Each structure stands twice: as C-alpha cells, then as structure tokens.
C-alpha cells in the first residue's frame, strides 16, 4: 500500500524517475518482456525503438499497471509501485497515451480534458457542476489551447479528425502535474505538417517532465529525445545516445534487415 | 453488441450552465417544457382522483425507479435489475419501522424517523448489490443483479419474523403532517410529482458534474479512466449508491401509493417490468423512463377494458401490454425517445433536402 508522504518526498529527492529491475511479463507461454532493467532520470527524454512484438507497449503496460509484471520491481521516483493499481500510479504523476486513441468519443473535447483534470484532483466524486471560473475548468481550457484544439473544443470527439484525436490523446496525458509520461506512438497516422506540430508540442514541454516515447518514425523520435533504448524479442538490446544507436551496425541489421543496408 | 445505446452528452458544456440562468434558457428554448410543467401542475384542476393517483402518481413512481436504472445503464453502461428490489426494500422498511396493520412486526415509529432509516437501509442494500455487480460486464451484470433481486423476493416470501412472509404488510399510509393529509389524492399526487421532479433534475444536473462525466467516461473507456487517475470500481459503486437513493425514495412513495407491500411488489415480474419501462421509454435521456412508465401504466390500466370491449377475454391483458412494448422496441430500439427524435428530424428537415438526397448521385 502507499507509503507515507514523508517517505515519498525524501525518496523522490534523489531517486530516478523510473527504475525497472528484472521486469518479466508472461502471457501464458509467451514471454513479452524478459528480465528488463531500465533506469530513467527525472526530466530525461528517451525513445524506445524496436520492431513489432519487441515488447515496447507491454513495457508501458507494466509501468502503468494495466498489465502488472509477472516478476521484477518497478520504482517510480523511488517508490515501489509494482503492486499499485493504475490509478494510484497516475495520481503520483505518471501519465500515458495510447497507440490507438482511447478517448471518450461521446463527449466534447473540453469534457475529455476536464475529466483528465478531475482524475488527478480531489473533486473526482463531486456532484456539483463546475463554475465558469473553476480551477480545473481553467486548467482544461489551457490544455486545449496548448495542444492547438481551442477551435474545436465544443465538438464531440467522434467528429474530430485523426490528427486532432492524437493531439487530444496528448492533452489527456498532460493534465494535472505530470512528472513522467509514456507516449505510445503519438505520430501514428499523422500527416507531415501534423508531425511537425507534434514535435513542437513535445519539445515545448516543461524541462522537468521526462518521457519515454515509442515511435517508428525515426525523424520524429530522434529529434525529441536525448537517449534511445532498443528492444528486441522482449529484451533490451542496446542503450545509448541517438547518434550512437543510429550508427550501430547490429541495430541497423535488426531494424533495416540484413543485406538491405 | 453494446447492451445500451450511449446517451448523447447534453448540449450545455460544464461550467456554462448554473443556477437560474440555466433554467431560464431552458424555458425559453423549450416551450414544450413550459407546457408540460404547467400541465402537470394544473392536472388536479381537471383530472379525477383516479387519474391523479392511479395513472400519473403510479407512473411517476415507476418512472423514478426506472430513472435509477436509466442512470446506471445510460450513463454507466451497467444494466442493474436490482433497482426494483431497492425500492421494495425501502417500502418494506417504512412498513416495518413505521405503522401498518401488522402490529406484531411494525415498530410504529413516527414517519420522520422511519422514512430516513428506510432510505438509508435501502441505499446500503443498493450499494452492496453494486459492489457485488460492478466487477462484471454486460450480461453478467444482468445475471448477478437478477440473482440478488430473486434472492430478495424469496427472502421476503419466506421470512415471517421481519418481512411477514407471503402476506407482507398492509395499511401503510402516508402521514398527516403540516396540516395536510398526504394520503388524499391531490396532496399525494403533488408529493409524487415533487419527488419525481427532484429525482429527474438531480439526474440531469449530476450528469454534467465531475461525478457524472466520469461515470460516462467509465462507460466509454474504463481502462482509460484508470489511466487518468480514476478508481473505476469505486466510481461504479458510488453510481449504484446514487441510483439507490432515487429508487429508495420511489420505494417509500410506492408503499404509500398502494398502502401495502408484499413479496410480489418486488417479484421477478415487476423487476423485469422496470427494465421494459426504461428500455421502451428510452435510455438515452432521463425523461425516457417517465414516458415508458406512463405507457406501461396506461396499458396496464386499460388493456382489460379494451380487450373486453372488442369481445375478447379480459384476462389476456398481459398479452396486450407485451405486444405494445414489442411494437415499440421492434420499430425503435432506442425506445419512444428515439422514435420521437427521428420523427421530429424528418418533420423539421426541409423537403428540398430530402429531394436532394434522394435524387443525388
């Protein structure tokens, strides 16, 4: 169960944002993650690369608690969150986006963001409607601005374009006071102009917010991160700075296929 | 297949509708609403006491119970069959703690003590049922709540020390207070109208509050709600609590309406009736259950006369009720509300539009 606030604060002062030790996740006989050990500093921005089935999204699901790890420990800012339910991790400042947009399609844009703001506040169960000058409502308005969706904020999400839905997906992860965000292929299906807009949103995040981004588009991924982790068959295969990993011959072989380079 | 159609979010965004301004805009925007309110308020001036109590009073009470189901099913995606049992529980508790003809069981406490305790116990019952049901989905929620409802029925049927078994309680009457005889037709009609209006407005209001929005969020995407920091299980249980308050209020009115309560009040038949009322009326908006309830009560009351009028056996009245609801659901899966909105769309759509569409490439 949650440790005390004092303990959390003292741990957070020195700890890594994310610390995975020997994390393994089995789906029946299939090992989606094998003995993954990974450390990410606060504020660090990292890409996780790898082919389909490399275990990237499973890694995210273990960190957020959607699918808890079969074995191993996960520490978030020093606190052992391995056995926490997802919402407890989120309330500690962890956020994620989904590869396939997971939005509330029946609700307007602003309500989606407002909900995200409620989720990490005390007013979650409030039966009272928000007033116009409500703090959470203001926060939601600002977030809608930040992801360039102010023009469509009253529209139902189902009516948005794919690109706008991807932007909203990011807005939901920025609600409250995020300390660390997991972006699961945020550029999937975006047009070139939308991609540069995404890069702008990611690079303009406050410096204390670290993130891990899963991205197949190297142009996007390598421009918004300072370190790269390569995964293959559920294992970490290589770690380093973007240029190191990019020029690594083994990585090229795996990613581009032997003999095609 | 989705068990229920998701209601459309109301047209007013949160933060833009509070207090009097919202009511004022609603009234100027919907003259039909004015007329309905006026009609309901003035009904006692021209309607007989039979119409007041046995048609409208009963429909408003059943509508409230169905509304509590609509709240869970429409906003939360949880089809609960336990709502009638929650109402029955509240009714029983009023009879047990208050006064009835069964003096050996009833404690004879004053109504202002018996009613809040009855509501409290029924709400606890509804919440516990919810706690059992919320970890299941779809058909399994229906099955588990049906099981609880059946258990409640058989328990009341077989328990004599508390529930007085098969015969239940009679002569349970609305109190006389503030110089008003609440069991008289006109005051009782206004009492049910007030209760139904409060329940209806509460549901409309809460649907746009953080709690209500989050409930709709759990309906649309529970996993994402957890990833936003919501405890989905706790939220769903709280929704059962809210719905139970409405059902319990209705249960108190129900026992005062009939003056009696017995196992059959919350038997499997009435439990299913509430589902039929809510679905036939429309789960899309809070007004749907009341429309469904009015249709149900009218069919229930006049089917016998109609059948005998055309020379058929009056005992077949259930057949007519069944056929009526079958027709509604056959022609409009989203109930009378859906029928109405489609009809209105067709009426308001300019005929040129229709022609352009039909003649288009």
Fold and architecture overview:
With 261 residues, chain A is of the alpha/beta class. Chain A folds into 2 domains: 1-93 and 177-261, 3-Layer(aba) Sandwich (Rossmann fold), CATH 3.40.50.300; 103-176, no CATH class. In chain A, 35% of the residues lie in helices and 23% in strands. A 6-stranded mixed beta sheet of chain A has the order 6-7-8-3-9-10, with helices on both faces. In chain A, helix 4 (109-119) crosses helix 5 and helix 4 (109-119) packs parallel to helix 6. The radius of gyration of chain A is 19 Å and the shape is globular. The mean pLDDT of chain A is 84. With 361 residues, chain B is mostly helical. Chain B has a domain at 47-267. The longest helix of chain B is centred in the N-terminal third of the chain and has 28 residues, at 49-76.
């Amino acid at each position: 169960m949650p440790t005390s606030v004092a303990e959390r604060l003292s741990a957070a002062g020195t700890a890594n944002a994310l610390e995975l030790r020997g994390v393994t996740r089995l789906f029946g006989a299939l090992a989606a993650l094998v003995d993954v050990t990974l450390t990410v500093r606060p504020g660090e921005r990292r890409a996780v690369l790898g082919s389909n089935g490399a275990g990237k999204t499973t890694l995210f699901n273990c960190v957020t608690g959607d699918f808890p790890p079969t074995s191993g420990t996960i520490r978030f800012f020093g606190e052992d969150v391995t056995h926490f339910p997802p919402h407890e991790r989120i309330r500690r400042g962890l956020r994620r986006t989904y590869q396939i947009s997971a939005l509330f399609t029946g609700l307007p844009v602003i309500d989606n963001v407002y909900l995200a703001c409620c989720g990490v506040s005390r007013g979650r169960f409030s039966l009272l409607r928000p007033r116009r000058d409500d703090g959470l409502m203001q926060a939601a308005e600002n977030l809608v601005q930040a992801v360039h969706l102010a023009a469509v904020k009253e529209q139902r999400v189902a009516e948005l374009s794919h690109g706008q839905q991807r932007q909203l997906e990011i807005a939901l992860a920025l609600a409250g006071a995020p300390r660390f965000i997991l972006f699961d292929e945020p550029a999937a299906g975006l047009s070139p102009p939308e991609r540069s807009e995404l890069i702008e949103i990611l690079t303009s995040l406050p410096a204390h917010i670290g993130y891990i981004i899963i991205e197949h588009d190297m142009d996007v991924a390598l421009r918004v991160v300072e370190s790269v982790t390569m995964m293959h068959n559920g294992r970490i295969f290589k770690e380093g700075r973007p240029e190191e990993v990019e020029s690594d011959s083994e990585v090229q072989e795996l990613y581009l296929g032997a003999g095609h380079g | 297949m989705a068990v229920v159609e998701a209601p459309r979010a109301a047209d007013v965004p949160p933060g833009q509708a509070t207090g009097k301004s919202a009511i004022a805009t609603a009234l100027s925007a919907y003259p039909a609403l004015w007329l309905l309110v006026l009609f309901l308020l003035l009904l006692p001036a021209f309607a007989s006491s039979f119409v007041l109590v046995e048609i409208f009073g009963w429909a408003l009470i059943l509508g409230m119970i169905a509304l509590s189901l609509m709240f869970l099913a429409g906003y939360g995606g949880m089809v609960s069959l336990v709502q009638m049992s929650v109402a029955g529980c509240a009714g029983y508790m009023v009879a047990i703690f208050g006064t009835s003809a069964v003096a050996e069981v009833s404690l004879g406490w004053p109504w202002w003590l018996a009613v809040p305790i009855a509501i409290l116990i029924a709400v606890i019952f509804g919440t516990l049922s919810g706690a059992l049901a919320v970890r299941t989905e779809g058909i399994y929620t229906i099955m588990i709540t049906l099981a609880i409802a059946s258990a409640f029925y058989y328990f009341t049927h077989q328990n004599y020390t508390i529930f007085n078994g098969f015969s239940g309680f009679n002569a349970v009457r609305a109190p006389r207070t503030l110089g008003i005889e609440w069991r008289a037709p006109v005051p009782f009609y206004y009492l049910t109208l007030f209760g139904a209006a409060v329940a209806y407005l509460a549901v409309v209001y809460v649907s746009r509050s953080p709690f209500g929005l989050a409930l709709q969020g759990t309906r649309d995407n529970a996993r994402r709600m957890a990833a936003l920091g919501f405890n989905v299980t706790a939220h769903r249980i709280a929704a059962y609590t809210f719905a139970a308050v409405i059902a319990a209020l209705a249960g108190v009115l129900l026992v005062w309406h009939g003056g009696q309560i017995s196992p059959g009040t919350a038997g499997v038949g009435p439990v299913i009736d509430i589902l039929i009322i809510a679905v036939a009326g429309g789960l899309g908006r809070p007004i749907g259950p009341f429309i469904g309830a009015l249709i149900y009560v009218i069919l229930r009351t006049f089917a016998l006369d109609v059948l005998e009028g055309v020379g058929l056996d009056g005992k077949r009245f259930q057949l007519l009720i069944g056929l009526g609801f079958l027709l509604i659901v056959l022609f409009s899966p989203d109930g009378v509300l859906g029928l109405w909105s489609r009809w209105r769309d067709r009426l308001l759509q300019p005929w040129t539009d229709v022609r352009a569409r039909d003649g288009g490439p």
